[in-house]
Amino acid sequence: RAYPRRGTFVSVEGRRFFAMDGSGLRFNRLAASSLGYLPIRGRTALVGRSTLVLTRADDQQDIPFYYLPVLDAQLLTAYPPDRFVGRDVLALGGGIRFPIRDFIGVYGIDALVMGYLGNAYNNVFDEFEPSITFEPGAIENDGGAPLRPALGIGLGIVNLDKERVVLGGLVGISPEGIS
């Protein structure tokens, strides 16, 4: 649905890469993501989302950076493209979407407030650290990498009859800046 208020969408994807240039590079990528909505009252809903991407090469080969997943504004608002790259990516988000005002029963203005945490890792199982850093740039503490925060604040004009956003925007705020 274009503007869901309830339900869950889960996606699991597996890919196998074979280089055709004679380098012998081969790797696997597994990506799992979920997006869920829990209705509270009327158009108000809690929103949750998660993404995990794991990339592993055969024979411990180095994977060129342009094949690696990135932590960017698609996963955490306000993080620029290609800023954080790693073999693995973990991103979590939670928030609320709620109505602000309705006009003549046809259009409404809804707000979205989301909090995000995530990071890019060489190996999420070895480097994941259950803490948060507000420092910009690449940071590793004793081999661990803390989660990076972001806040998303959005507004949307909703066609109530079609339950579809007609016009909307999302502002992302993070230690890396605003987008």
What is the β-strand count? 11
Helicity level: under 10%
Q: Which consecutive residue ranges, at least 5 long each, have pLDDT under 50?
A: none
Mean pLDDT, all residues: 88
Largest sheet, if any? 9 strands, mixed
| Helical stretch tally | 1
Strand content: over 45%
SSE arrangement, N to C: EEEEEEEHEEEE
The end-to-end distance, rounded to whole angstroms, is 27 Å
Structural class: mainly beta
Radius of gyration, CA atoms, in whole angstroms? 19 Å
Shape: elongated
Brief rundown of the structure:
The chain is mainly beta.
Write a structural description.
- About 0% of the residues lie in helices and about 60% in strands.
- The chain is an all-beta fold and about 180 residues long.
- The strands form two sheets. Strands 1, 2, 3, 6, 7, 8, 9, 10 and 11 form a nine-stranded mixed β-sheet that branches. Strands 4-5 form a two-stranded antiparallel sheet.
- It is elongated, with a radius of gyration of 19 Å.
- The chain starts with 6 loop residues before the first strand and ends with a strand.
